[in-house]
Amino acid sequence: MTGPRGDSPPHVLCVGSANVDHVFEVDALPCGEGKVAARSARWGGGGIAATAAAAISRLGARATWAGIVGDDWLGHMLLDMFQDLGVSLPAKAVVPGARTPMASVFVNPAGERWLGYYRGEGLDVDQSPPELPDMASVDAVVATRSPDSLTTEVLRLAALHGIPRVLDAESGTATDLELTTNLADHVIFAETGLASYTGVADTVTALGIAADRLPGHTLGVTLGPRGSAWKTAQGVLWITAPHVVARDTTGCGDVFHGAYALAIAEGAGLPDAVRFATAVAALKAERGRSWEGMPTRPDVDALLQKGWT
């Protein structure tokens, strides 16, 4: 596995949020007021960009997370998790006096989840921007939809350097996503996000509308266990996902985006990049266990070699 510069592994820059997840495995997801006993509980890493970085690093590539956390105990827990996985962090990633985001996640035996999220306090990248790595060392970028100054700066710098830019367009209207979608060149929607962006529920029609708005972009939509769909010059390309027994689907979309960006950084074309990302996300769903359950490259290669229908 090498990047465009030869023998060194590809370097993917992941810009966006990080949080700590407190995960409870329960028999049934919460519904209304009440109390539920958990079969198990654990702390884990979370956040779209942070989880993408964790997946990339576990796959043997270089990953840098660009974001900020508080100097509270949750922030230091996240820093330890990043260090354990070998994810690089920018200078000035810790903001004194700020509170780190966290989420409470309930997961049922089918791997479905219910999530409550706290965004933290005092984490303003305009006031406390982290230092970015030298963009000449970066082979691909993964960014979240947030049009804050850090995200837009990274996407603009990457565009100037001709670096592939993968946007996680999980949700948002066309107005919400206008800036970041225009700055990216690979835009991957969640199914509900594509419907919100286009105002159309039908996947084929919605991808056509998105393609009209974003000419020259690579456009796709993730469909959970059904795989994903991609707009091409020949029509819509459907790529299925392998059947797995999901333990926890939390973060699988984030894992998909990170793995896809890594494959693009390695020079893979669209079908191969998508199949690679699909395999990584499926193995993550099967294993659960937050960042500890990230698959390795040999795990993924074995699944790809076996194939699925």
State the major sheet.
8 strands, mixed
State the helicity in percent bands. 25-40%
- Give the distance, in angstroms, between the N- and C-terminal Cα atoms: 26 Å
Named at the architecture level, the CATH assignment is 3-Layer(aba) Sandwich
Strand neighbour order, sheet with most strands: 4-1-9-10-11-12-13-14
The radius of gyration over CA amounts to 18 Å
In CATH terms, the superfamily is Ribokinase
- What is the overall pLDDT average? 94
Whole-number tally of structural domains: 1
Helix/strand/pairing category: alpha/beta
The counted number of beta strands is 14
CATH uppermost class: Alpha Beta
Order of helices and strands: EEEHEEHEEEEHEHEHHEEEHHH
> Roughly what fraction of the amino acids lie in strands?
15-25%
Query: What is the CATH third-level topology name?
Result: UDP-N-acetylmuramoyl-L-alanine:D-glutamate ligase
**What characteristic shape results from the CA principal axes?**
globular
- Low-confidence blocks of residues: none
Total count of helical runs of at least 4 residues:
9
Task: Describe the protein's architecture and organization.
With 309 residues, this protein is α/β, with parallel strands linked by helices. The chain has one domain: 3-Layer(aba) Sandwich (UDP-N-acetylmuramoyl-L-alanine:D-glutamate ligase), CATH 3.40.1190.20. It contains 9 helices and 14 strands. The chain has helices spanning 48-58, 73-85, 149-160, 174-183, 191-198, 203-213, 252-265, 270-287, 297-306, and strands at residues 11-15, 19-25, 40-46, 62-66, 69-70, 94-95, 102-107, 113-118, 140-144, 165-169, 186-190, 218-222, 228-232, 235-239. It has an 8-stranded mixed β-sheet with strand order 4-1-9-10-11-12-13-14, with helices on both faces. A hairpin with a 5-residue loop joins strand 7 (102-107) and strand 8 (113-118).
